[in-house]
Amino acid sequence: MNWGWFKELLSGVNKYSTAFGRIWLSLVFIFRVLVYLVAAERVWSDDHKDFDCNTRQPGCTNVCFDHFFPVSHIRLWALQLILVTCPSLLVIMHVAYREAKEQRLRETEGDNYRCIYPNPGKKRGGLWWTYLLSLIFKASVDMVFLYIFFRFYRNYSLPRVVKCELPPCPNVVDCFISRPTEKTIFTLFMVVTTCICVVLNLVEATYLIGKR
């Protein structure tokens, strides 16, 4: 997947953000998107191929893998990044709407034109609400995914051995996860950066409300 458009999106909303928002954007792009692109995809590329169970029963390995990993960790992380960055697009679209409205009024009214939005990017009126709701949405998405990861990977860690007794496995079999320690480290890194992003979103929302 080409993630280049994320860079353009985050760069575009940067000029409409507060200081806390710029820190959040830098954190997301450097420590989440880039880490995902450079390292995380490769770490999880062998998750199914190297998931081994000590049985030759056809279908047992696939069933056990599906039971312990109902959703691919890396795809779930990708979905989280998409959902958490998309609200920034709403802010850009709102500013673009203001600029287009100004342009239409300037063309239709001519000399009688009265400026409605001297600074289209200034967070007042509807744009203030759009920006605030985007912060709440981003924090909510991150917290929901933290819960999902916790449910799928208890304590955000991957065990070295998992026991499976689902049909068509003949009995209780041991299954081994590829590189569990490395994957646990990346998962914990993702959790820590997500928590920091949630705190930054809440601090920025508090700052906006207090300033208003």
TrEMBL record:
<keyword id="KW-0812">Transmembrane</keyword>
<dbReference type="GO" id="GO:0005922">
    <property type="term" value="C:connexin complex"/>
</dbReference>
<protein>
    <recommendedName>
        <fullName>Gap junction protein</fullName>
    </recommendedName>
</protein>
<dbReference type="GO" id="GO:0005243">
    <property type="term" value="F:gap junction channel activity"/>
</dbReference>
<dbReference type="Pfam" id="PF00029">
    <property type="entry name" value="Connexin"/>
</dbReference>
<keyword id="KW-0303">Gap junction</keyword>
<dbReference type="InterPro" id="IPR038359">
    <property type="entry name" value="Connexin_N_sf"/>
</dbReference>
<feature type="domain" description="Connexin cysteine-rich">
    <location>
        <begin position="141"/>
        <end position="208"/>
    </location>
</feature>
<dbReference type="InterPro" id="IPR013092">
    <property type="entry name" value="Connexin_N"/>
</dbReference>
<feature type="transmembrane region" description="Helical">
    <location>
        <begin position="185"/>
        <end position="209"/>
    </location>
</feature>
<feature type="transmembrane region" description="Helical">
    <location>
        <begin position="20"/>
        <end position="39"/>
    </location>
</feature>
<comment type="similarity">
    <text>Belongs to the connexin family.</text>
</comment>
<feature type="domain" description="Connexin N-terminal">
    <location>
        <begin position="42"/>
        <end position="75"/>
    </location>
</feature>
<dbReference type="GO" id="GO:0007267">
    <property type="term" value="P:cell-cell signaling"/>
</dbReference>
<comment type="subunit">
    <text>A connexon is composed of a hexamer of connexins.</text>
</comment>
<dbReference type="InterPro" id="IPR000500">
    <property type="entry name" value="Connexin"/>
</dbReference>
<keyword id="KW-1133">Transmembrane helix</keyword>
<feature type="transmembrane region" description="Helical">
    <location>
        <begin position="128"/>
        <end position="150"/>
    </location>
</feature>
<keyword id="KW-0472">Membrane</keyword>
<keyword id="KW-0965">Cell junction</keyword>
<keyword id="KW-1003">Cell membrane</keyword>
<comment type="function">
    <text>One gap junction consists of a cluster of closely packed pairs of transmembrane channels, the connexons, through which materials of low MW diffuse from one cell to a neighboring cell.</text>
</comment>
<dbReference type="InterPro" id="IPR019570">
    <property type="entry name" value="Connexin_CCC"/>
</dbReference>
<dbReference type="InterPro" id="IPR017990">
    <property type="entry name" value="Connexin_CS"/>
</dbReference>
<feature type="transmembrane region" description="Helical">
    <location>
        <begin position="76"/>
        <end position="97"/>
    </location>
</feature>
